TrEMBL record, chain A:
InterPro entries the record matches: CLCR, VWF_A, vWFA_dom_sf
Gene3D superfamilies in UniProt: von Willebrand factor, type A domain
Phylogenetic placement of the source organism: Bacteria, Bacillati, Actinomycetota, Actinomycetes, Kitasatosporales
Name of the featured protein: VWA domain-containing protein
Keywords: Membrane, Signal, Transmembrane, Transmembrane helix
PROSITE patterns, A to Z: VWFA (PS50234)
From TrEMBL, chain B:
Region (Disordered): 21-58
Listed name of the protein: Secreted protein
Keywords on record: Signal
Extent of the signal sequence: 1-23
Biased composition (Low complexity): 21-32
Biased composition (Polar residues): 41-58
Amino acid sequence: MIRKKRPVAGACALLAALTAGLAFPAGAAAGEPTGQSAPKVNLVLDVSGSMRAKDIDGQSRMAAAKQAFNEVLDATPEEVELGIRTLGANYPGDDRKEGCKDTAQLYPVGPLDRTEAKTAVATLAPTGWTPIGPALLKAADDLEGGDGSKRIVLISDGEDTCAPLDPCEVAREIAARGIGLTIDTLGLVPNAKLSRQLSCIAEATGGTYTSVEHQDELTDRVNELVDRAAEPVVTPVATQGADSCDKAPALESGLFTDREEFGQQRWYRVELPAGQELRASVSVAADRAVRPDYGVLLRAVTVHDREIVRGEATGNGRTDVLSTGLRYPKPERDDDDSDKPAAEVVCLVVTNSFSADAGVKTTPGLPLELTIDVVDGPDGSGDVASFGLGRGWWLLGALIVTGFVAGLLWGWLSRWRFAVWRTN
Amino acid sequence: MRALRVLSAALLALGLAAAPAAADSSPSPSESGDTGAPTRAGTSFRTATEVEQGQTATARASTGDYLYWSFPADAGLRPTVHATVKLPESHAAETWQIDVYDGLRRRQACQYGAQTRTAGANAPSVELDCVLRTVRAWSEPWANDPLPGTYYVRLTALRLSTADLGQAVETELRVESKDMGGAAAVDGALSEPLMPGIATRAGKDEEEDRAVLAGLEPEDGWTSGWWSDRWIWTAAGGVLAALAGVAGYRLTRGSGRPPGAPPHA
C-alpha cells in the first residue's frame, strides 16, 4: 500500500515546491485561537511604609520603583493595555482591618497615556500596610474580560501583613477562574520569608519570581515581563472532564484546560474517524506544595472500557508540571465491515498520583492542560529498513558473492550446453 | 550493460526528484524576526521560546524559574542539547537539570551527557548536556521513540536553598544535531510531524501573526522520508553483483570454445 503512495508523494513534491511559495507563508503563521484581544498587564506596586528604606543603590525603594516605572512606561509596546494598582498607599493608621482594605487603582487598565500614568506614579508616597491578597483579588478583577493574555506583575518589599488570607491561595483561586492569568512577582531586597511567599504566589499561576537588589534589575525585569505579555500566545479553551466516559465532554483538535483534584479521574471523549491518528498530550501542574514523588497517567480507552494505549510519567523532586502523551492511529476501514460506524469514540482518561501533606488545600484542583490533534494516519511500516533496502559492506559482499556464483554457474552451464550440442 | 543503464537512469531520476523534495521548505516564523537568536525563554510548554538548531539562545532568568525552549528535529538526526547557566557570585550549592520532551510532551531519555549537575557553593557556572536518541521517521504507536517534530527543553534548578530563590542567572542553550545517515532510515512515515496544534493549523482561515503552539520547522523543511543513502548502497550492490556475475561467467565459459574443438564444428 505504501509502495504505491510514496512515489506519488515524491511526484507531488515538485508540485508542492511550486505552490509552497504561494500557499505556505500565510498558512505557517496561521494559528489556533480566534482573533485575540489586546494583552493586558496590571502592575501592582507595594507602597507600604517599609518602602522608605534606603537600600537600593543608595536611594529609597520607593524612588527606585518610581524611576523603574517611568522607564517601563516609556518602553511599553503600543498594543499592551497597562494598568497600575497600589497597595498600602492611602491608609497610614494602625487599624489592621482598615489597613488590609487599602488597595486602589492608580491607573486603569486600558490604552496607555504615558504622561498621565507618569504623573499618577509621581504622587505616590510610602504609607501603610501590605495587603497582598486583597490587592491581587482586585487586580484580577481589573483584568476581567477579553481573551488576550493577562499578567499581573507584583512588586513588593515585605510579606503580606493581612493573615489569615494567604496570598498564595488567593493566587491559586485567581488561576482557577480559568481566565489565563499569570502572576509574576518581584521582591525588593527580600528576606527568606518574602522570597518563599512571593515564589509561592508565582508558582501557583505559572509565573516567575525575581529578587531585586538594584534599580536597573527592576527596570529590566518589569520591561521584560511587559514585553512577554505582548507576545501572542495560544489561549486554551476551558473544559470540564467528567467522571465517566458516557458523561464526558466531546473534544475536537485544540488546546484545553481543566482542573483535577488529587486522585481524581477526568474523562474526555474524542471522535476518531478511520484512517486518522489521535495525538493527545496532557500536563498536570503542581501549583502548590506537593510530596516529592508523583505521577500522571493518560489512557485511551474504548467505550467498552478496553484500554487501547497509554502514556505514563512519573517524577521526583521539584517540578512545575508533569506531562505525558499518546498516539493512536486508527487503521483504514476494510470494505467488508462497512456496517460498522466509520468513526470510533475514544475515551481519554487522565489520572494523577500527586499527593500533598495534610493542611494543603485540595480545591481547586491542579491545573490540567490537554492538547488534542487529530491528523491523517501514518504510512505503515512493512520492514524495519526504509523500503526494505539494504546498506553496508556486508550487503555489498553478499551481492558480489551471489552475483559471482551465479555468473560461474551460468558460464559452466553454457559451456556444458555447448559441449552437449557439439557431441550431438 | 542494459541493466546498468536503466539503473543509472533510475538513480538520476531519483536525484532529480529528491531536489524539489529538499527544496520544499516554507518560511518558518522565527521568534525574534530575522535579527538572530532569541534572548528570552518561555515559562511553560505553551509559551516555550522557539529556537532553531545551531542557534545559541540566551535568556536572563531567576533561580527557581522553569525555562522552556522548543526546537524542531527531523528524522535521521541525533540532537544534542547543551545548556550553560552562569550563576550569581555568591550562592549555596544548587542542582540544575535539563529535561527534554517530545511533541507529545513525553519525556525523552538522554543517551549520555550530564543532564543533572550540582554546582558547589559559589561556583561560577554549571554546564549541562543531553544527547538524545536518534529521531526515527516512524515507530509503533505504543513506543515512545523520538519522532520528527517539536522538542521541548526545560531547564530548572532542581534543588536550591530558599536564600537563592529569585537570584539572577544567565542561561544559554544550544541544540546541535548529528546526521546519522541511512543507518537510521526506517520504513514508514508520519503523515504530519509531531508538532502540537498541527491539526488546527492547516486549512483554517489564514491569518498572519497568529499564536501557534509550535511553528518552527527545520531549515530545509521536513524531509519527505523516502530518500536515504540506502538507495545508493543497494544500487551499488546491484551493479557490483552484475559485474561479479559477468566475471564469473567469463571465468567458467572460458574463451567461448572448449580447447580442442574444431574451428567449425
